[in-house]
Amino acid sequence: MNNICPACGGECVPTGKGAGYTVYRCTCCDNEYRVSEGQPFPVYHTVRRAAQTAETAESVPSAREEPRELNGEQIYSRCINSVLEVRARRGNKIFSGSACVLNGGYAVTNAHVVAEGGRRADRIELYGCGSKFFGVIVALGSDFEGGEDLALLKFSGAPSAVAPVRFADVSLIKNGQPLYVIGNSLGGGTCITAGIVSDRRRMLDGKPRLMTDCAVNRGNSGGPVFNAWGEVAGTIVAVTTAAEGMNYAIPADIVIKFINRCGIDA
């Protein structure tokens, strides 16, 4: 299995050895990682830019540092294959939304996208990586205590490039951090918008929500909100009309809880 760079998603190759560790360099961004023998490749272990010799590599500091933040272009490139456009058909009506890919051929979206008013769609079309395929509803948030506006889908026929998301640790989310929304805005195709964490935990109708000023429109419902490291911080659920430009997402920990309740590893 290739070792994947946590900063940019590129492939990391061994460049040298030290006393009890191996040095790896990313072929894309040149970041360097020192991995002790018997330890897994690091998820968050970004250190200074690579030296080109094993002698210099031995001097790379072992202290863990914050991973490098990605810009909007990098987020879109890294995460686009994890976002699906959703078209749920019920009779003559079509409901547009978005979803994010999970492991094992599953995806999560809003219940109101695929089962408006509790009535399940007759047909769910999904679009990702330039292909059209189909999904079925496995579970709804209303199946569990708390009744979150979430739905778990199982899809088939997707291209191999479709990739699962990684969820953020919500305890690390801070007000003012950058966020990116990728989704099927206005039902016209996938696009990206940017903003910040306006409020990491705000109550809406008695439920905790992540508040952001990322531009969100019809069609974004059910889509992921990414942090600056390409992790899902939440799932878009509502636009507020009480304040201009403010929108809400179901926080990642609540989404993970729902997915786990469905018997799926997030």
Which key terms come to mind for this protein?
266 residues, 16 strands, six-stranded antiparallel barrel, single chain, mainly beta
Which of globular, elongated, flat, extended, rod-shaped describes the shape? globular
Would you identify the regions where 5 or more consecutive residues have pLDDT less than 50? Answer: 44-64
Distance between the termini: 21 Å
- Helical fraction: under 10%
Radius of gyration: 20 Å
Strand neighbour order, sheet with most strands: 5-6-7-10-9-8
Structural class: mainly beta
Query: Major beta sheet, specifics?
Result: 6 strands, antiparallel, barrel
> What oligomerization state is this entry in?
single chain
- Mean pLDDT comes to 86
Your description of this structure?
The structure is a single chain. By secondary structure, this protein is mainly beta. The chain has 4 helices and 16 strands. The chain has helices at residues 54-57, 72-79, 111-114, 252-261, and strands spanning 3-4, 11-18, 21-26, 32-36, 83-90, 93-101, 106-109, 123-128, 131-140, 151-156, 178-183, 191-204, 207-212, 224-226, 232-239, 247-251. The strands form 3 sheets. It has a 6-stranded antiparallel beta barrel with strand order 5-6-7-10-9-8. The chain is globular and about 65 Å long. The protein starts with a strand and ends in a 5-residue tail after the last helix. The model is unreliable at 44-64 (pLDDT under 50).
